[in-house]
């Protein structure tokens, strides 16, 4: 019975999060337990538990007397998350340099090759930024790259903490309009070079260099994303 309850809660969690990522449940939307339960064909209990989990991840906020609402992710939220990512993922990169397997190194190289293809297309077309399809593919490759690296660190607790704090960043990318414009030919080239340098440090089993390069990569991402958000905010104020 307990397993059934856990499965229903997980099902509810995945459904609500997917609705958020697809902007069906947009920032500011009130989450009504009964309505969501009817959509899922479950009782209100797993829905309530799923909403509590989303709240613990920072994606939902409870307002006393009003209910639970999809949270608007601010520039300050992302800034703080990038600081945390720097601490955690840089450490993971250093650990990975000690334990990463040959097959994992090869998988990272395949990902870099795919990122290089997207970058080459941007440069050949003299495009100002990625297409939506290229952006989605880029984010998937970035996620896979980091997952392999975290797995290679062989630290299960670190893996869980990193996965939890990346949730808000993932939803940010899903919700932002014109998000594909974040990645330009210059930023794509910078990312590829950084990942190639990181892979070289991993092959050389150099933890300190791996940590430093990962930190530089995350700070570059922080710079680009926050600059993009500032630009969007200026555009809203101008209209």
Strand order of the largest sheet: 1-3-2
Report, as a whole number of angstroms, the end-to-end distance: 54 Å
Q: Please identify the structural class as seen in this structure.
A: mainly alpha
Assign the CATH architecture of the largest domain. Answer: Up-down Bundle
Task: Give the number of DSSP strands.
Answer: 3
Taken from the alpha-carbon principal axes, the silhouette is: globular
Mean pLDDT score: 88
Beta-strand proportion: under 5%
**How much is the radius of gyration in Å?**
20 Å
The CATH class of the largest domain, by name, is Mainly Alpha
Assigned CATH superfamily of the largest domain: GntR ligand-binding domain-like
The total count of helices amounts to 10
Number of domains: 2
For the biggest sheet, the summary is: 3 strands, antiparallel
Helicity range of the residues?
over 70%
CATH fold-type name of the largest domain: Four Helix Bundle (Hemerythrin (Met), subunit A)
Q: Low-confidence spans: pLDDT under 50, at least 5 residues?
A: none
Helix and strand sequence: HEHHEEHHHHHHH
Protein name: HTH-type transcriptional regulator McbR
Pfam family, one: GntR
GO molecular function: DNA binding; DNA-binding transcription factor activity
Keywords: DNA-binding, Transcription, Transcription regulation
């Amino acid at each position: 019975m307990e397993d059934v309850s856990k499965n229903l809660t997980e099902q509810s969690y995945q459904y609500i999060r997917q609705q958020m990522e697809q902007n069906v449940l947009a920032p500011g939307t009130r989450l009504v337990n009964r309505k969501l339960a009817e959509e899922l064909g479950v009782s209100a209990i797993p829905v309530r538990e799923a909403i509590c989990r989303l709240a613990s991840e920072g994606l939902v906020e409870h307002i006393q007397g009003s209910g639970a609402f999809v949270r608007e992710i601010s520039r300050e939220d992302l800034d703080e998350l990038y600081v945390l990512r720097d601490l955690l993922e840089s450490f993971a990169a250093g650990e990975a340099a000690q334990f990463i397997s040959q097959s994992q190194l090869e998988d990272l190289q395949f990902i870099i090759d795919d990122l290089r293809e997207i970058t080459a297309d941007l440069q050949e077309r003299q495009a100002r930024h990625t297409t939506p399809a290229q952006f989605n593919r880029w984010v998937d490759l970035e996620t896979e790259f980091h997952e392999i690296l975290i797995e290679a660190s062989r630290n299960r607790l670190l893996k869980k903490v990193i996965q939890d704090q990346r949730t808000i960043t993932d939803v940010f990318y899903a919700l932002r309009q014109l998000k594909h414009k974040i990645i330009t030919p210059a930023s794509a080239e910078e990312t590829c070079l950084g990942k190639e340098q990181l892979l070289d440090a991993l092959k050389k089993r150099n933890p300190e260099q791996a940590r430093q390069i990962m930190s530089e990569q995350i700070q570059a991402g922080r710079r680009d994303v926050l600059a993009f958000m500032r630009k969007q905010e200026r555009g809203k104020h101008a209209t």
